[in-house]
């Protein structure tokens, strides 16, 4: 989700999104940012399209982790 979509999902208007995240949400956000930076340093993207691809790769990695955590927590 985009930040604006996530704020709407959580019912936030002007409040800080990070201040209203659970510990797991904050950790996953940090992991996504770190993974994306590492991918960028390895792949050295240039231009918007290549950077978008790297960002999607970082986001996908975190999605896999989030889905796994959610499955574990359901049981």
CA radius of gyration is 14 Å
Low-confidence parts lasting 5 or more residues at pLDDT below 50?
A: none
Number of strands: 0
Estimate the global geometry from the Cα principal axes.
globular
- Fraction in beta strands: under 5%
How many alpha or pi helices?
3
Taken in chain order, the helices and strands follow as: HHH
**End-to-end distance:** 25 Å
What structural class do helix, strand and pairing data support? mainly alpha
Helix content: over 70%
Question: Your description of this structure?
Answer:
This protein has 75 residues and is an all-alpha fold. Helix content is 75%, strand content 0%. It has helices at 3-10, 23-43, 48-74. Helix 2 (23-43) runs antiparallel to helix 3.
State the gist of this model.
With 75 residues, the chain is mainly alpha-helical. It has helices at residues 3-10, 23-43, 48-74.
Describe the secondary structure blueprint for this structure.
Blueprint: H1 3-10, H2 23-43, H3 48-74
Question: Any key phrases for this structure?
Answer:
75 residues; mainly alpha; 3 helices
